[in-house]
User: What shape does this take?
Amino acid sequence: MMKGNSAARLSRRGFLTTTAGALLACGMPAWVRAQGVAPKGNKLRMACIGVGGQGLNNVRNVAGEEIVALCDVDFIRGGGAFHQFPNAVRYRDYRQMFDEMADQIDAVVVSTPDHTHFPAAMRALEAGKPIYVEKPLTRTIGEARLLKEAARKAGVVTQMGNQGHTNEGTRLVKEWIDAGAIGTVTEVHAWTNRPSWPQGIDLPAIEKPPLTLDWNLWLGTAPWDDYRRNVLPFNWRGYWNYGSGALGDMGCHLLDAPFWVMDLRGSVKISAESEGGNKVAAPKWSIINFEYPARGGCPPLKMTWYDGGKKPPRPPELEAEKELPGGGTIYRGDRGVILVTGDYSDSPRLIPETAMKEFKRPEKTIPRVHGGPHKEWINAIKGNGPAPGSNIVEHSADLTEFVLLGNLAIIAGQPIEWDAEKLEVKGMPELNSFIHPSHRIF
Assistant: This one.
């Protein structure tokens, strides 16, 4: 295996495998291929990058369209998708896929580990393709800003895979708070029972990669390192070079509704408590405080995140026989409290239960999404609906930036002040390499 920049000389063509009759170069009018949009009744030609695990779920969620290309760096890991869609062209290298099939692809789904989201999505945008990208949108804040600008310039339909943004519960929370159901919100708490993978540890021992895996392609733009035991297929989430920890993994779900409802953009002060984190891995647990100044006539707001088994103080409004769930959100206003159960803003309730029973629900003013985030994205590409709610330009890039700020505070080991306009932590230039990482040529 070649290492470092020399890996860029590896032949891409050697990684292509096709089944008989798999090159689907025709069957749709030329104007469809040029614009990347299918008229009513026709199917989009989908390419999916990263097709094991959650990637396979995403392939299945767009399988009502035409799956024309499947890409995975490990053909065993991607085998389930290959078996289910035998007519799709198979690739290990998404760059080769775009080189050879760009005019046969209408839309792209990116479901790789976090560190590959940015380069794969950027390549798709450069080709003018609508994209669906798993959360978090990128591994770093600088990448999120770059991808947002690229999506704006491309003018294509985009979506991030934080499915809770299409949920009824997310809309109810916003409608209730906008209507003054709990008065002025001054505190928000969100927590998760993740990580369910190792964190706060050093890298495991080096060993030989599986013969079916192209390790250089899996690393992609990440710094070169030898293959290590048990980092794949799931535990990469806990290592800074590849993932973004429990916060990056679940924050784009649990913090999505608070971010949207409270408009948590802009400059903010952040402090973090944690245990076991280091330069290699995210911590065993963290408690992160985001402190926003008064904005737009609203008082200051404190947003607190908890992971690794930590939870907020039990709200006194919660009945004695009830416990806080494994994951959820609390909104505290000056006239009441909303408790949301679950990771995806699933089930909002005013507490105590007497407050919910007396609550006169406001009119539903936010359009509902039917069929989930994949359908919302596909409908928008076909011109059958508005832009997806978690599109990159208007929502998900900014949400990702907000979430990843917590990791900067963990890495800094001291309170930080984020300057959103300058894209920097005030007085801490040493954090710039975590905001704008270098990318390896592979």
In short: Residues 128 and 347 are 38 Å apart (CA to CA). The first helix runs from residue 30 to 35. The domain at 167-204+240-367+397-428 is CATH 3.30.360.10 (Dihydrodipicolinate Reductase; domain 2). Residues 1-36 have pLDDT under 50 and may be disordered.
